[in-house]
Amino acid sequence: MINLIKVISMKLNKILMPLGLLLTLSSALLATSTAEKLFDTKCASCHVKIKPADFSTLIAPPAMGIVKHVKMNYNNRDEAIDFITSFALDPQESKAVCMPKTIKKFGLMPSQKDNVTKAELDQIAAWMYDNIKINKSCNSKDCNSKKGCNSKKEKKKKNISPFLITGKEMPHLTKILKMNWENKELNLSEKQKKKLLVIRKVTMDGVMELKPQISKLETKIKMLITEGTNPQKLYPMVQKLSKLKAEATKIHINCIFNTKNILTIQQLKIL
Q1: Residue 148's CB: how many other CB atoms inside 10 A?
Q2: pLDDT (tens digit, 9 = 90+) per residue, 36-45?
Q3: Rounded to two decimals, what is the model's pTM?
Q4: Boundaries of every domain in the chain
Q5: d(CA 35, CA 27)
Q6: H or E stretch including 157?
Q7: For residue 7, pLDDT beyond 50
Q8: Where are the alpha helices (DSSP H) in 74-189?
Q9: Domain spanning 29-153, CATH architecture
Q10: Is 144 helix (H, G, I), strand (E, B) or coil?
C-alpha cells in the first residue's frame, strides 16, 4: 500500500511540475504583455519604441536612447528601474542622464504623476530595461529595436577618445558625481550641485563640439594609411588632429580642476 502511494505521488509530481512551470511562464508573459501595453498607452505617444527613419519627427528621445543612457549610468537593474520611475514622476535637470543637448532640443520632460501611477511606472520601467534593445551600430532604416539588426552591411562604430591623455588619473568626475547625486554619504549641497551642473554643461558642450571632428579626422587618417597614402600628405592632418585633441584635453583638465575645487576633502575621499 505504501509503495502504491509512492508510485502515485511520483506520477502526480511528474504531471504537476510541468503544469506549475507552465503557469509560471504564463504569468511572466502576461506581466510582460501588460507592461508593454502600459508603455504603449502611457509613453509611446512621445517615446517611440524603434529607431525612426526620420529623427526630425521626434518630439521626445526614443525609448532605446533612454535605456542606453540609463544603463550607462546605472549598472544595477533595480536602481535603473527606480531611476526611471523617480524621474518620470519628478523630472529635474540635475537628475537627468541624457546629454545636455537632448534637453535643449526637446525640453525637460513634464511630470507624469497625473498620468500614471508609481506601480504602473515600475512595470513600464522594468519592461523597458528588459526588452528595449540597444543597437549602437545599426544604421538600417528597417532596424527594429526589439528584433535587432540583421543587415550584412552593418558597420561597428569604434569609440574614439577625443583626449590626448586617458587613464584613471583623468576621471570623468562630473559623470561619477551624477551617478552619486543623491548619495547620502557624499552629501552634496544644493549650492555645490548648482556649480557642478554649470561645469558639466561647459565641459560637455565643449567636448561634444570637438568629438565629431576628431572622430571623422582620425577615421580618415587611418583609412588613408591603409590605402598607402604618402606620409607627407598625412602630416598636416595629424597636426590638426593633435590640436583638436589638445583642446579637448584642456577642457577635461579644467573640468577636473574646477570640480575638485568645489568638493570638500572628505567628499573627494568618498569618490
Answers
A1: 13
A2: 888 888 898 8
A3: 0.49
A4: 29-153, 173-270
A5: 12
A6: none
A7: no
A8: 77-89, 100-106, 118-131, 173-179
A9: Orthogonal Bundle (1.10)
A10: strand
